Amino acid sequence: MSSIEYEDSAGHLESGHFGRGTLVSLSLASFFPAVGIALVPTLVLTAVGNPTAWHASLLAAICMILVGRAIIVFAGRFVATGSLYSYISEVFGPWARYLTGAAMAGGFVCGVGGLAMLVGRFLGSFMHERQADPTDLSALQFPTQSVIFTLAFLIAAGIAYRGLDSSVLVVVGLAVLSTPLVILITLASARHTGLQLAMQFDFSQFSVGATLRGVAIGAAFLIAFESCAALAAETRDPQRNIPVAVMAVPVVLGGVYTLATILQVPGLLEAYDQVAAGVSPPAALAMQAGLGSSVAAATDLVLAAACFSSLVAFVNYGARFALAFAEDGLLPAPLTRIHPRFHSPHVAVVSLALVSLAFISVAVLLVGDVSSAYDALATLLVYIWVLPYVLIAAGAIVLTRRAGEFRPGLLIAAAVGGAAMAWTYVNGWINPPVAPSDSMTWVAVIVIAVVLALFVLCTVLRRSARQRERVDV
Fold first, then answer.
1. Is 144 in contact with 138 (CB distance < 8 Å)?
2. What is the pLDDT of residue 5?
3. What whole-number distance in Å separates Cα of residue 92 and Cα of residue 306?
4. CA-to-CA distance for 232 and 188, rounded, in angstroms?
5. Are the CB atoms for 337 and 345 separated by under 8 Å?
6. Rounded-to-integer distance, Cα 36 and Cα 88, Å
7. Residue 132: what pLDDT?
């Protein structure tokens, strides 16, 4: 399934294009370290509801690392552009491939859309701070945000359309430029407030339900960490380099986000009113730490650029997943076309951008503002991705047993990681987050069902077309 190279009459993907250093850099940069440092602490703190939020960030990282151990079992054996979708075909029947593919397709629309929302969120915060009326939230609402979304997708799709060289330059460059300022704000905030470790390590406030809500929102910034596996066909020695790039995200960034949570929580508690009024968390921390309004303003612009860099990366990843689905007959055949000059899946790039734009525009219109809509979408992304992670964890156990290998560490990691992800979803029913995120448990089921229906429809149409061709012959 989803073979190493795709060709049509127009062009093909470039084999052996990435070395390990470039791939790891792209993998880390595409998960916007600056934005994770800026937003994970405040989102996890809000979800947990008490100052011990750091342990939810840590548990989210550990869950992703455990799942990652299961994923690299496949990445070290198989070369495929479909990542989890392709891997699961090696151990289970078509039903698992359909379910995994449906979840990943819906998840990528949510993930790509969420990144565009973050671009709008930070640019909206920048515009909001410059309005004469602080109660005017129009910069964060649908009319303004729809313009920002459209421009972000237009530029991001244009870059992805031109191929991987242009995309890597933009993604890694913007990530490197954006990170130092967020680190400066984090350290300045910690110096201003102190770490208040007695408060942060007071586990008398611990709650399993609240912690798992925090794990779900923290995991949103690590979900799909295996996406660089979509570039396997374009990577040198992929069976060695893909596993390293996959694990770099939860290990490195998971640790960074946990540390950032400890450093920022005291400042975020003091800046609660500013954040509630529409100021972005890093801008509020910058003002509170005495760095001045100019630094706060620059922060919003820098983070918008960082989100845009990740948007470019995930449009590339998502387009290659769509290509893999289309090659297997689950999506329309035109998505398999490769640009003859840029060697990019250009039809898939444009299609993903258009679908994601429509999806998030409707979401912001229904919810009312980009901040609330993003929080709900981040939760939805985690719930959707639970299914592929549970299946791949089970698949890793089956694969090693078939190979006659005894790997107790892997078996434990896969079992615990898969169970933790499943319980994260179940906890969404038992201890639901605040509205509108509370409805994402059943929205996730609907999204997967709709994509499954689309897969079935495309499969039936492809079979009918082939039958007509045989009859004509």
1. yes
2. 39
3. 38
4. 41
5. yes
6. 29
7. 64
Task: Compute the distance between CA of residue 319 and CA of residue 340 in angstroms, rounded to an integer.
Answer: 16
CA–CA gap between residue 394 and residue 203 (Å, rounded):
33
Token digits of residue 115: 């990144």
Asked if residue 98 lies in contact with residue 452, where contact means CB atoms within 8 angstroms, the answer is yes
Biggest CA-to-CA distance, the chain = 78
Q: Alpha-carbon distance 410 to 265, whole Å?
A: 34
CA distance 85 to 395: 12
Peptide bond into 282 cis (omega under 30): no
Classified as helix, coil or strand, 371 is helix
CA distance 291 to 199: 25
* Other beta carbons less than 10 A from residue 239's beta carbon: 14
Q: What Å distances lie between residue 221 and 50, 256, 366, 411, CA to CA?
A: 20, 12, 24, 25
Place of tokens 């770099």: 248
Residue with tokens 């509020």: 284
| Residues of the chain under the 50 pLDDT cut | 1-10
What burial letters (b/e) apply to 25-50, b meaning 16+ CB within 10 Å? bbbbbbbbbbbbbbbbbbbbbbbbeb
Structure-token pair, residue 3 = 């073979």
Residue whose tokens read 């990445």: 75
Six-digit token string for 178: 């954006």
Q: Which residue has the tokens 């709900």?
A: 376
Beta bridge partners, 12, equal 7
Separation between Cα atoms, residue 294 and residue 275, nearest integer Å: 17
Give the integer Cα–Cα distance in Å for 28 and 286.
25
Q: Looking at residue 265, what is its pLDDT? A: 93
Instruction: Please answer whether residues 418 and 393 qualify as being in contact, where contact means their C-beta atoms are separated by less than 8 angstroms.
Output: yes
Alpha-carbon dihedral sign for residues 403, 406, 409, 412: positive
Span 435-465, pLDDT tens digits: 888 899 999 999 999 999 999 998 888 888 7
The Cα–Cα gap between 419 and 417 comes to: 6
| End-to-end Cα, the chain, rounded Å | 27
Look up tokens 């791939």; give the residue: 23
Contact between 421 and 411 under an 8 Å Cβ cutoff? The reply is no
